[in-house]
From TrEMBL:
Protein source organism: Paragemmobacter amnigenus
UniProt keyword annotations, A-Z: Methyltransferase, S-adenosyl-L-methionine, Transferase
Phylogenetic placement of the source organism: Bacteria, Pseudomonadati, Pseudomonadota, Alphaproteobacteria, Rhodobacterales
The protein's name in its UniProt record: Methyltransferase domain-containing protein
Keyword Nucleotidyltransferase in annotation: no
Ranges where the O-methyltransferase C-terminal domain occurs: 142-355
Length: 385
């Protein structure tokens, strides 16, 4: 097969490589750097970074083993010898020693005087909401990426797409068990997302906040705690209503929250709120669904009403090492949505009729970033583009 038939770019049409890339492609340059003391750090740092990429899948699987075997959980009770980890886990001591050293290499645990103990990073792993649930959920994604070439060619049927049936419409919500799995995983991580969102968004002056697709109400509960006078509406599928009702009752907010069951794909959004939040909602859905949702939010808000979009976002022209690797691949496996940049979301908001669009990069982009806007006083979205 010729290069042209294979889709290769003819040499005459190829751009000239930058000088730094040309050096990077030169084995002689790498050998030179390795010999010169002042330049060795270049070869060493680039080599280490490349090896981190190569071994990444082993790191994630070692972490999964530490979680499933509850090694870190046992260390949270205090330092123990290797035998106290190997026995309860049903792992031979010599193999547990290898796993524990891998955990030490990841910075999660350490051994001193024959006793294994947690590090600060390991303690943080057990404490940060959602991390453990995310890791335990990852085998689904790992299986989908078993043949990465076929995956990126679109020749596979990802298992992950079946894990989130709610994305395909209200039909998926008929399975309470699947809805519960979704809600539990999301609720574990939503606390951190809510905290970061509320640091970036000032809700002072908002009287009534509606959270669309808010699951069991983790974000609304955090917002209600931060703003005791805030009235709230939760709009989501019927299957999440019982857990949301219990959450608000336990938080003493039942009288401040109205829970409305429905699907934003099929049902009109409730009116009356002067702000609407979409927390980790847009990246689950196609451009057409997102455009329709943003128009529905625009129509549900009064003039000057605000919209808050909070989710991990692509770096756009400057790809982010977390969101453009993890979240972009994850949403590709879901088959229904995609990870968008803040600039893309901003353009979609303008097309839906919003104005005064602001993009706020999160200080932890892998948790969330934010785009806010206001309903334009011009009610014709086309005139706002």
């Amino acid at each position: 097969m010729s290069d042209a038939a294979a889709g290769a770019v003819p040499p005459a049409r190829r751009g000239r490589q930058p000088w730094a890339v040309r050096l990077g492609l030169s084995p002689r340059f790498h050998a030179f750097c390795a010999r010169v003391p002042g330049l060795r750090h270049i070869a060493r740092s680039e080599g280490a970074a490349l090896f981190d990429i190569v071994q990444g899948f082993v790191q994630s699987q070692a972490l999964l083993a530490l979680v499933e075997l509850r090694v870190l959980h046992r260390l949270a009770e205090g330092p123990v010898p290797l035998s106290a980890l190997a026995g309860p886990a049903g792992v031979p001591a010599e193999r547990m020693a290898i796993l524990c050293k891998a955990g030490a290499g990841l910075g999660l645990m350490a051994c001193r005087r024959g006793m294994w103990r947690l590090t600060v990073r390991g303690a943080a792993f057990l404490t940060v909401p959602g991390l453990e649930a995310m890791v335990r959920h990852h085998p689904v994604l790992y299986r989908d990426l078993a043949d990465p070439v076929a995956f990126f060619r679109g020749e596979t049927q990802p298992e992950l797409a079946g894990f989130w049936p709610y994305v395909f419409g209200a039909g998926g919500a008929a399975d309470p068990e699947l809805a519960a799995r979704y809600s539990a995983l999301m609720a574990d991580s939503q606390g951190l997302v809510a905290a970061d969102t509320l640091r970036m968004v000032d809700l002072r002056g908002v009287r009534h906040l509606m959270d669309v697709g808010g699951g069991t109400g983790a974000f609304l509960a955090a917002a209600g705690t931060a703003h005791p006078a805030l009235r709230m509406t939760l709009f989501d599928l019927p299957a999440v209503v019982p857990a949301a009702t219990a959450r608000f009752a336990a938080a003493g907010m039942a009288g401040r929250v109205e829970i409305v069951a429905g699907s934003f794909r099929d049902d009109p959004l409730p009116r009356g709120a002067d702000a609407v939040s979409l927390v980790r909602v847009l990246y689950d859905h196609s451009d057409a669904t997102v455009a329709a949702l943003l128009r529905a939010v625009h129509d549900a808000l009064p003039a000057g009403g605000r919209i808050v979009v909070s989710e991990p976002m692509s770096g756009g022209d400057s790809p982010d090492p977390a969101t453009d690797v993890y979240f972009s691949v994850y949403t590709l496996a879901m088959q229904t949505g995609r990870t968008r940049s803040g600039a893309e979301i901003a353009r979609m908001l303008v097309q839906a009729g919003f104005s005064d669009v602001k993009t706020i990069a999160g200080f932890r982009p892998y948790v969330t970033s934010v785009v806010t806007a206001a309903r334009s006083f011009n009610t014709d979205p086309q005139k706002s583009v």
